[in-house]
Specification:
This is DNA-binding response regulator, NarL/FixJ family, contains REC and HTH domains. With 214 residues, the protein is α/β, with parallel strands linked by helices. 50% of the residues lie in helices and 13% in strands. It contains ten helices and five strands. α4 (86-94) packs across α6, α7 (153-163) crosses α9 and α8 (168-175) packs across α9.
Length: 214
Amino acid sequence: MSIRVLVADDQAMVRRGFRLLLDDEPDMEVVGEAGDGEQAVRRVRALAPDVALMDIRMPGVNGLEATRRLAGLPTRIIVLTTFDLDEYVYEALRAGAAGFLTKEAPAELLIEAVRVVAAGDGMLTPGVTRRVIEAFARSAPPRRSPALDALTARELEVLRLMARGLSNPEIGRELFISGTTAKTHVSRILTKLGLRDRVQAVIFAYESGLVTPA
């Protein structure tokens, strides 16, 4: 079954480029386009794509506001921008985005991101993880969240490693467990904390005080 994608960007040539790239994949289909945030919100609600590629800088309603308006819907959003700026990264993730990529990212990374977020996970590249950490380093120290008490000692270890940007196989190697076991721990953490994916888990780890920027 194909991953249904909507592309939202104010430049027609960019939309066409993404369409050609994604439609060339056997498991993907671009089902719609939008030229601004308002149109993106309407078309996501009408077409219910699995994934929406959302440009940040669009006329009228921008990509961040459109992402906020679509929070709670099944469609997973990957925010795209040519401006690799800290405030955009953090605001995009807080707005509910499942991933953040710059338009300069390799085509292979974009395709991987679509597959990853369509499968229910979040796409957080090392560069984005670093910027999230830097954003917290500049902010006031967070208070410890009582929600952490619901996690076991091993789950807290896993969450700390997630906050460092480690994948499930990397977490497994760090803790001398299998990647499958690490994945099970991650799933339990998300369930216990009521989080959507590992992107939200990374943000929670810093906001709750479990991890502090080094």
